[in-house]
Design brief:
Largest sheet: none
Radius of gyration: 26 Å
CATH class of the largest domain: Mainly Alpha
Oligomer: single chain
CATH topology of the largest domain: Four Helix Bundle (Hemerythrin (Met), subunit A)
Helix content: over 70%
CATH architecture of the largest domain: Up-down Bundle
Structural class: mainly alpha
Distance between the termini: 37 Å
Strand content: under 5%
Number of helices: 11
Number of strands: 0
Order of helices and strands: HHHHHHHHHHH
Amino acid sequence: MEQGSSGSGKLSWINRVLVFLVLASLVMLALETEPDLSDTWHRSLRVLNVIIVVVFAVEYVLRFWAAGENPKYAGFKGHLRYAFSFYAIADLLAFLPELLIMIFAADHISPQLLAILKAFRLFRLFKLARYIPAFNLLRDAMKKAGSQLMISLFLALALVYISAIALYLIEGDQQPDAFGSIPRAVWWAIATLTTVGYGDVFPITPLGRVAASCIALAGIGVVALPAGVFASSFSDVIRERQEAALEEKARQSLTGQDDD
C-alpha cells in the first residue's frame, strides 16, 4: 500500500481505487454546496460520502497495523512513531472529522462548523502526494530551489512594503481612505505587483500615477522571478532523474556482460 510516488513501481489496483475515491470526494465537496441540486442528489452524495469515509477509516487501520512490518515502526513505540508521522496524521484528519459527524449526527452541528469539518477533506490531497510520482518531483524541485525561492519572496515583500510607503507619501493626503496609512496602501501594492489590478483603489495625482507605473513594471519581474526559478529547478530534477536512470541501466548492462 505504500507503493507510489516514493517507490519505483506502478500503482496497485488498491491505490488506484484510493486515488479515485480522493478525487471523487473532492468533487462531491463542491457539489454538496450547490443549493439547486435536488434532495435525491444530496441524499446520494451523503451515502457515497459515508462509503468513502468508511473506506478511508479501514485503510488507515490497516496501514497502521501493517506499519510494524517496517523495522522503523516495529513495536509499540514504533507504531506510535508512525501514528505521529506527517502522512499518518494527514490520513487521520482526512476521515476522522466526518466520521465524528456521522457518529454524533450532523443535525446537531451548526452549518458553519459542519462546513469547516467537511473542509478537512482537503487533507486527502496528501494521499495523492503519496501515490502520484509528479508530486514527488514537485517536492524535490521545491527543496532544490528553496533558498532561491526565499530570496524571491524577500524581494517581493520588500517591494510591496516600499511601494506602499511611496503611495502613502504621495497619495495619502488626496485619498485618505485608500492610502491614508501604510497598511491601507499595502492592499493596493499587493494587487498591483501581482498584476491582479482590481481597480477599486488607484492613484489620481500625476506623481502617483508615475510611481504606480514604475511599480507595475517592477511587479512583472517580481512575479516572473520565482516562476523562472522553480521552472529551472523542476527541469534540473527531471534531468537528474533521467541521468540516474540511464546510469543504472548502463550499470545493469555491464553487470550482465560481466556475468556472461
